[in-house]
Specification:
Length: 524
């Protein structure tokens, strides 16, 4: 069982609070500590800072340090800003390790976010930068009750609606509990008055009838949907839903595992996405600090002495001799999966920390269709369908509803062992695998599919993985050593946070690092 499957199961059975504590213990999430715009006051004495990487962490640092009076230079491997904040659009080309080059052939206005695709409401740091930089946001639909939950091993392989699975699971559990409460099995734990209130609450929560049973009828239909919805005129009389899933079949199907995702703290509404793609955030930062960035600069060596930091790099486009950049201090935001392969003369503790953190495997596949069949045929507007197939989920666009014409689905978002399998394939094979699995859920794939693009993150040259995969033991042993100022070198990024894999982690890590660096400078 993967960690993500375990967390989804905890969330669906025990609720979001327990799931959140489990995620926190694994270093997957924590409350954002953002308190508003940082204030770096005092005389910086003309200090220079070299920032490695123009991802979110690097550009936050560049913006704030320049504003405080520092002389800033940024070296970036890519020809764009944003790092994993990335949107692939029609006309874009991308070459991964192994030499596979993909040219995205999406129609104008359509896109895939290969990296982050949503921003929780409580990620106050990244949201504040969106506001300050004028990045327009729109809602991201995490839970769509009309989306699908699918098991290839249950109910003949036919998908079920999310609302049906949630209603039936809650209804069966509520009925069991209400019977136990009614028989006074909990009398040692609840008073008579509390027992009566609990029975009333279970009826409401589980849509039970007056007898405390979860059965076909008005109560259950108002949760799982009607066989014939209420109407108007002579056809107004509704027909109640009759196909409630038996509890044993529902439990064996494991469809209930999917309904916990929206309960997790990081997935609770409201979530946001930038209008036009997640890469709009990177674009906005580039407008602010682009003149500080040297693009196509591949870092090959990082050295420091008592007076300065020297970084060697090569131009990935023009080639030529190795070049050097120097500064009083260096803030390195290069992912640890890459940094661990670069010569860096830091202390043994930081070096051990850099080498200690592996990176998650992940793969995303975007599929373009010639019509928005999920809206036209199935009335699914945004949100996510879940499956036990290797693609794991299908994400629907949260914008341009009722626009007609073409659309792009997130046809696969793969983690764990399946992600290694997908990454080992060629991009074309990944696209076709996502197509083959997806048509088992949406037969309309056969007539509507046009083109696709696929990103396996372990083949992405500047990241070599999705995000830092801390364990509780490794965090206890290495985290503080990773984040400490080592001579004149500091690290920042999602890997140097307790919110790995989220942009908020990169923002908070960067602000913490430059605050400590600033204290060093003004006190020197």
């Amino acid at each position: 069982m993967s960690r993500r499957e375990l967390l989804m199961m905890i969330g669906s059975v025990a609720g979001s609070a327990v799931s959140y504590r489990a995620m926190a213990s694994l270093g997957l999430t924590t409350e954002s500590k953002y308190q508003g715009p940082i204030r770096l006051e005092g005389d910086v004495k003309g200090a220079t800072v070299l920032i490695l990487g123009a991802g979110i962490a690097g550009m936050v640092a560049a913006l704030e340090l320049r504003k405080a009076g520092y002389q800033v230079q940024v070296l970036e491997y890519n020809n764009r800003a944003g790092g994993r904040n990335w949107t692939l659009r029609g006309g874009d080309s991308y070459t991964e390790l192994g030499g596979f080059t993909q040219k995205c052939e999406f129609d104008k206005g359509l896109y895939l976010n290969p990296g982050p695709w949503r921003i929780p409401y409580h990620h106050r740091g990244i949201l504040d930068y969106c506001k300050r930089l004028g990045v327009a946001l729109e809602p991201f639909v995490q839970v769509n009750y009309n989306a699908l939950v699918h098991s290839s091993k249950a109910f003949g392989g036919a998908p079920r609606r999310y609302r049906e699975v949630q209603a039936d699971f809650n209804g069966h559990v509520a009925e069991l509990l209400s019977k136990e409460v009614a028989q006074k099995k909990f009398d040692k734990k609840v008073t008579k008055e509390d027992r009566e209130m609990l029975l009333e609450a279970l009826k409401e929560w589980g849509a039970l009838d007056k007898k405390g049973a979860y059965v076909p009828g008005r109560e259950s239909s108002e949760r799982r949907g009607y066989l014939k919805p209420p109407g108007g005129g002579l056809s107004a009389i509704p027909e109640f839903s009759r196909n409630i899933m038996p509890m044993d079949e529902l439990l064996q199907s494991r469809l209930w595992a999917a309904i916990g995702a929206g309960h997790n703290y990081e997935m609770q509404t409201t979530l946001f996405q930038p209008v036009g793609g997640m890469g709009r955030i990177g674009d906005a930062f580039r407008r602010e600090v682009g003149n500080l960035i040297r693009f196509n600069a591949k870092v090959t060596r990082i050295q420091q002495d008592a007076g300065k930091v020297t970084v060697n790099y090569v131009d990935t486009v023009k080639g030529g001799a190795t070049q050097a950049a120097t500064a009083d201090y260096c803030l390195c935001t290069i992912p640890l999966s890459v940094l661990s392969q670069i010569e860096v003369n830091v202390g043994a503790k930081m070096q051990a920390a850099i080498s200690a953190v592996p990176y998650e495997a992940s793969c995303k596949v975007g599929l373009q269709f010639k019509r928005r069949f999920w809206e036209e045929d199935e009335h699914i507007y945004g949100g996510i369908s879940y499956t036990d197939l290797p693609i794991r989920l299908i994400g629907y666009p949260n914008t341009d509803y009722h626009s007609g014409g073409k659309g792009v689905l997130l046809g696969a978002y793969v983690f764990g062992p399946n992600a290694y399998e997908f990454t080992a394939m060629s991009p074309e094979e990944r696209v076709m695998k996502a197509y083959e699995y997806g048509k088992m859920i949406h037969p309309q794939y056969r007539d509507s599919f046009e083109t696709g693009v696929a990103v396996g993150w372990h083949r992405v040259p500047w990241t070599l993985g999705c995000a830092g995969a801390w364990t509780e033991e490794k965090r206890a042993q290495h985290y503080e050593n990773l984040c400490q100022l080592d001579g004149r070198i500091l690290l920042a990024g999602e890997h140097a946070s307790h919110i790995p894999a989220w942009q908020e982690g990169a923002v908070l890590s960067s602000l913490d690092a430059i605050s400590r660096l600033h204290k060093r400078v003004i006190s020197a």
